[in-house]
Design a protein that fits this description.
alpha/beta, 5-stranded mixed beta sheet, 30% strand
């Protein structure tokens, strides 16, 4: 398994994702730092292709990880602590992913972290978002 290393991942977040991958080995086709085109790009009205590409990278929404099994695509947000902001991110990512990629499989959302938070987990689960944390399984 390749080491996960991205500028926006802390070392702890990368370890959380690596541990998650060990626990769910049947997920395949892993992609990391999946960019979603922001509508900000269209608002900027940039003609220069180099500046437009730079603006795309600066404004893109970034999904931490996307993977699949036979029936579903999983959009994964990784946090050091289980945070309410992760729920909002996942809901935005799901909408944008559907709009931009038009997947043939169902989309499932996962919020994973090192430290759990039962309040955030409860709300996430009510919204159909699965949660998982390293500390809750130790």
């Amino acid at each position: 398994m390749a080491k996960i290393k991205f500028p926006h991942f802390t070392l702890e977040e990368a370890k959380v994702l690596e541990e998650f991958q060990k626990r769910f080995p049947y997920f395949t086709n892993w992609r990391y730092d999946v960019k979603l085109k922001s509508r900000k790009l269209d608002l900027a009205k940039i003609d220069d292709p180099i500046l437009k590409k730079m603006w795309y990278h600066l404004t893109a929404k970034r999904i931490d990880a996307v993977c699949e099994d036979n029936e579903n695509i999983y959009i994964i947000e990784v946090k050091r602590y289980m945070m309410a902001s992760g729920i909002g991110q996942l809901l935005v990512y799901q909408y944008m992913f559907n709009e931009q990629f038009k997947p043939k499989k169902n989309i499932k959302l996962w919020l994973i972290s090192y430290y759990p938070d039962p309040d955030v987990e409860h709300i996430a689960n009510q919204l159909g978002i699965r949660t998982w944390s390293v500390k809750s399984i130790e």
